[in-house]
Amino acid sequence: MEHQAGMNERHSRILAIDDTPANLLTLGAALSEEFDVQIATSGAQGLALAAEMPPDLILLDVMMPGMDGFETCRRLKADTRLKDIPVIFVTALNDIESEIQGLGLGAVDYITKPIQVSIARQRIRNLLEREQLRRQLMAQRDQLALEVAEHARTQVMLRKLTVAIEQGPAAVVITDPDGTIQYVNPGFTAMTGYDATEVIGENPRILQSGETSQNTYQNLWQHLEAGQAWQGELINKRKNGEHYWEESLIAPVTDASGAITHYVAVKSDVTKRKAAEETIKDANRQYQDLLSAASEFSIILTDKNGVIRIFNRGAERMLGYRADELIGKAVPAVLHVAAEVQQRGEALSAELGRPVAGFDVFIAKLDTEGQDRHEWTYVRKDGSHLTVALVVTEVYSATGEIVSYLGIAQDVTERKTADKKLQLAASVFTHAREGIMITDAEGTIIEVNDTFTRITGYQKEEVIGRNPRILKSGRHTPQDYAAMWKSLCEKKHWYGEVWNRRKNGEIFAEMQTISAVCDATGKTQHFVALFSDITPMKEHEQRLEHIAHYDALTHLPNRVLLADRLQRALLQSQRRNNSLAVVFLDLDSFKEVNDTHGHGVGDELLITVSQRMKSALREGDTLARIGGDEFVAVLVDLEQAEDCQRILERMLIAVSDPVISGETSLQVSASMGVTLYPQDGSDTDVLMRHADQAMYAAKQAGKNRYHLFDVAQDNAIKIQHDSLERIRLALSRHEFLLYYQPKVNMKSGEVIGAEALIRWQHPERGLLNPAEFLPITEDHPISIEIGEWVIGTALAQMSSWHARGLAVPVSVNIGARQLQQDCFATRLSQLLAEHPNVQPWSLQLEVLETSCLEDLGKVGAVMKACQAVGVDFTLDDFGTGYSSLSHLKHLPAATLKIDQSFVRDMLDDPNDLAIINGVIGLARAFGRSVIAEGVETAAHATLLISMGCEDAQGYGIARPMPATDLPAWISGWRHLGYVGKT
């Protein structure tokens, strides 16, 4: 009994099943001192007790009513929970067949009645000891399997760690089986201060500080001697005597036979934190630490229901969770995209023919394939996604039961991205609109895409293995290609335009990028050329270049190209020390051709004349069109003035020769202004301006000629420019005002109106008459501004008088430039509309007869348009022009004004008197009224009245006066009458 008690920490439980109470009492009494005995009086009761608390041994009677011992044994062995419990049959039967039957059902022994208690007790004791030994052997087998697996995993980890030994920050020590140091890495030197030469051949005990417990060292060697890795913390001493904490992972390295050949220690200096007080002792923690060291993988261990039990450091780094945040939670709920899990479950359900959902999605195929490999989308803690390759396997217990599932995941996001990029690159290569050519490092073509074939005409088979020189056009020099290769060698890149030749011989332009593809060492392996056909673009650029620099009608250089040509000519003239001429040319009477025959004929004339002028120039000279009928010629390499004059004369002849258009013969002439470099200017702007000024001088001199620029003329133009600017300033400062000179009927004494006359209240020079400033404004746009100001001011004054009950018709003078504006009648209507109380008939416009000569037709049309508005005209200074009778016929003016030059001398000069008489006769003949200006004496008035001219104005009647004085003058005139009145 003592021996039995020593072998068992508790009494073994025995279940006795017998339908005879006496037998049960006997067994109980015999066995209860050494064993815990339970009794059952039937097979059914025995099965229930065994299921509730499985015994270590069952004594089973064979002969029982109902369920006999054999059936009871059969049911025990059919129950997976009870099948391993040893059964001893107890029976009075002594035949061999019954014993064989019982043993065949799984019984381990047979005891016959009557029972010999001491023998039965010993047989039971022996049987229990054998069962205990069997169980111990099974446990040792399972432990050995775990240790073997653990050892293999440790070996794998050690081999992985050796890759980073030399570069890693950790200290690494390798010893032989006796502990003699054979190798230390630089991390060891950095940690301890010992150089490798100082410790090779020594024992690691040279690092011991005496502060690490002996238990720690014993534990260390126990692991190592058992072939296991040891991880823990030690207090060691550096070469300089300083103590430090280190975390060490020490593992044996074995050969193929399992014999230890080395020990490898990986040490980290953990002085800054306190070492853990307990070393890792149990296998589960060792397993978890080894899993944690596999940082490149996410390793998750779950129970059979998918609840996380182990979450290694690799998983923490990969997913952003701490292990304690996920342990105890279900895998699909926290790490996976629900829709993806559902989709996978539906696919597996269709494949396996049964419902698959939840955690079953990850393990459904393990029964048939042993492991499940699939790519999944993991969800990190921050909500971001990554793609992993997940392998799920079953983990078995020592008894062969599935106890957990191991999932090993590797982040393949970058690989997937790279795969997509490769697929995209392949797609781009195939479908790119650019041609792509790949060569090896020597320049031999190894691949081209379809666009290459489309652009060059060469099929892939025709160029593979050949050099890109087959595309050379011959337009580039060897230096061009040398610069290209220099860039490729130095910068690994070249970009630019290349002219190449297609298979059919056609030359084409391409925009090309060449890049060198290098290996890890920087050595060029391939060249990749991307190019696009830019021939249409180049052609378009050429067209745009022509449009930008050439006149669309004559195809002569335009103003932009002229500026460039002139600048180049100046530089050339400086280098050659000779002269050049700039000729500004304007066609005379071209406007009449356009107006009379239309723009189509005008364009034809321009084209013909420009071709003739160009032919009149020399090679190297430039002829440009800079405006409608304006041209500029640049004459280069002039050695003497006669060279220039001969060319100018040829140009005049070229322009003046008739141009035949259909059945019409057209003829124009040219006014040309000429300036010389370096005599007349040193830069292009000055030369152009001087030539322009000289051209206007040629026009003023009678046209159809050329005029050489002179300095005096330039000074006069500058003075004119300054005067115009001062007049413009005066207009903006409201320095102009209107004076009014009354008009009267000399016979009746009636005031018939007043003429508005402009004055300039100059701040320095006082009140200026029109003759002192208006001539400067002729043929200048400011004359239009002044004329419009006069009309507007006169209408405003008339409106003011009308509001005071004074209705005085007013005439204003209109210049030729203003009158010939296409919008003049429209603008006049707008000004009248601003003063609705002024009747249009009360405003009369005076226009010089001579100003109508340039374009009678247009002036006549404008006058008629104004008459339609209600405003009539007076022809001023009538009789001073040429062919006045013809003008009177075409110009619908209501009144003729006799010029004061005739009136002034009419008393003494019979010619002037005759002209006045003729004008009065013409007015009467054409039904026009007549008025004389410059009437200064009663004798003038009396003679004019006698000749039939009753209306007049002049100093003899009244001088021009401010608007404020006119009402009082009119009032006084009416009361006093005219002194010359008859």
TrEMBL record:
Boundaries of every PAC domain copy: 228-282, 372-424, 494-546
Positions of the GGDEF domain: 578-711
Alphabetical list of Gene3D superfamilies matching this protein: 3.30.70.270, 3.40.50.2300, EAL domain, PAS domain
Domain PAS: 157-203, 283-336, 421-467
Ranges where the EAL domain occurs: 720-974
One MF term in the entry's GO annotations: catalytic activity
Biological process terms in GO annotation: phosphorelay signal transduction system
InterPro entries: Biofilm_reg_signaling (IPR052155), CheY-like_superfamily (IPR011006), Diguanyl_cyclase/Pdiesterase (IPR012226), EAL_dom (IPR001633), EAL_sf (IPR035919), GGDEF_dom (IPR000160), Nucleotide_cyclase (IPR029787), PAC (IPR001610)
Coiled-coil region list: none
Keywords on record: Phosphoprotein
Modified residues (4-aspartylphosphate): D61
Domain Response regulatory: 13-128
NCBIfam families cross-referenced by the UniProt entry: GGDEF (TIGR00254), sensory_box (TIGR00229)
Protein name as it appears in the record: EAL domain-containing protein
Species classification: Bacteria, Pseudomonadati, Pseudomonadota, Betaproteobacteria, Rhodocyclales
